[in-house]
Amino acid sequence: MSKNKCPMHGADDQWHGARMDFSDAMSYGDYLGLNQILHAQHPLSPNHNEMLFIIQHQTSELWMKLMLHEMRAVRTHLQADDLPPAFKMLARVARIMDQLVHAWDVLATMTPPEYTAIRPYLGASSGFQSYQYREIEFILGNKNAALLNVHATTPEYPLLQEALNTPSIYDEAVQLLARHGLPVSAERLAADPTLPTVADASVQQAWLQVYGDPTRYWALYELAEKLVDMETAFRFWRFRHVTTVERIIGFKTGTGGTAGVSYLRKMLDVVLFPELFALRTEL
Ligand code: HEM
Ligand SMILES: N[C@@H](CC(=O)c1ccccc1NC=O)C(=O)O
């Protein structure tokens, strides 16, 4: 046996017959668009740590892209009363959020002096201007028309406006409750989709009925718990953001123009699916 013959299957080289020439076939990098992705890091400062800062945000935006892809499909499946695929997707969204929660551990290796060396190069840019993040908030029901102004001069504006005008995943879950014969008030069913979710007594009663008889309402019960999983994971993300920010910049004003940590702390009070949390006191 020549020294380059594979002992496993006798191929002529030691790489198990792997194709080496991709001049006329699609390769790994072609399929994944790696030329674009891996050439999209352009540090502005001479500081070593800026690469971490850029890649942390780029990977987060990629995961957000997948989350939105899943969340929009969840909404469509809920509208169609097609719950099993929605459950699968909601589980995936919660796991992606967990991934983003743990990603903060990487960024937390950046110390205040390291970030201070980069910060002047960021200008007025801020995560506050992340249109994918804003769409995630909107699709979860945390609507705020005023925040559209940040994007008024960008190509994403119409997309975000549509996201503001479209009922949230939770609005669709509430419609589903009604279609399953649970008594939801006409006011809630006709709620303005551009406004943030407001707790509604009839919705809480409907969910209470579901939690009171899981066997009868198993699919709705499972939906409720999947929504609670998703909101819990999202709260962890917010918490890790604000604690990491405090660790790195203390109480400095944000580059996006907000008060910084105090603004982010206020966001910890947002409850996306209010009745699903409130009902727990009643069980
Ligand atoms: C050194 C790291 C970071 C610092 C110091 C920081 C700081 C801040 C501050 C102060 C704000 C408030 C808006 C402002 O005035 O700028 C903010 C908002 C935001 N940041 Fe970060 N951030 C960091 C990392 C990240 C990362 C890794 C992400 C992930 C994509 C992110 C996403 C966001 C988003 C989406 C908002 C808007 C939040 C909202 O409106 O509720 N940030 N950040
Ligand atoms: N708001 C941050 C800046 C910041 O974190 C940032 C800047 C540009 C791109 C993404 C960012 N991340 C999240 O806010 C600050 O005040 O330092």
UniProtKB/TrEMBL annotation:
<feature type="binding site">
    <location>
        <begin position="53"/>
        <end position="57"/>
    </location>
    <ligand>
        <name>substrate</name>
    </ligand>
</feature>
<feature type="binding site">
    <location>
        <position position="255"/>
    </location>
    <ligand>
        <name>substrate</name>
    </ligand>
</feature>
<keyword id="KW-0479">Metal-binding</keyword>
<comment type="pathway">
    <text>Amino-acid degradation; L-tryptophan degradation via kynurenine pathway; L-kynurenine from L-tryptophan: step 1/2.</text>
</comment>
<comment type="subunit">
    <text>Homotetramer.</text>
</comment>
<comment type="function">
    <text>Heme-dependent dioxygenase that catalyzes the oxidative cleavage of the L-tryptophan (L-Trp) pyrrole ring and converts L-tryptophan to N-formyl-L-kynurenine. Catalyzes the oxidative cleavage of the indole moiety.</text>
</comment>
<dbReference type="InterPro" id="IPR037217">
    <property type="entry name" value="Trp/Indoleamine_2_3_dOase-like"/>
</dbReference>
<keyword id="KW-0560">Oxidoreductase</keyword>
<dbReference type="GO" id="GO:0004833">
    <property type="term" value="F:L-tryptophan 2,3-dioxygenase activity"/>
</dbReference>
<feature type="binding site">
    <location>
        <position position="115"/>
    </location>
    <ligand>
        <name>substrate</name>
    </ligand>
</feature>
<dbReference type="InterPro" id="IPR017485">
    <property type="entry name" value="Trp_2-3-dOase_bac"/>
</dbReference>
<keyword id="KW-0823">Tryptophan catabolism</keyword>
<comment type="similarity">
    <text>Belongs to the tryptophan 2,3-dioxygenase family.</text>
</comment>
<keyword id="KW-0223">Dioxygenase</keyword>
<dbReference type="Pfam" id="PF03301">
    <property type="entry name" value="Trp_dioxygenase"/>
</dbReference>
<dbReference type="InterPro" id="IPR004981">
    <property type="entry name" value="Trp_2_3_dOase"/>
</dbReference>
<keyword id="KW-0349">Heme</keyword>
<feature type="binding site">
    <location>
        <position position="119"/>
    </location>
    <ligand>
        <name>substrate</name>
    </ligand>
</feature>
<feature type="binding site" description="axial binding residue">
    <location>
        <position position="241"/>
    </location>
    <ligand>
        <name>heme</name>
    </ligand>
</feature>
<keyword id="KW-0408">Iron</keyword>
<protein>
    <recommendedName>
        <fullName>Tryptophan 2,3-dioxygenase</fullName>
        <ecNumber>1.13.11.11</ecNumber>
    </recommendedName>
</protein>
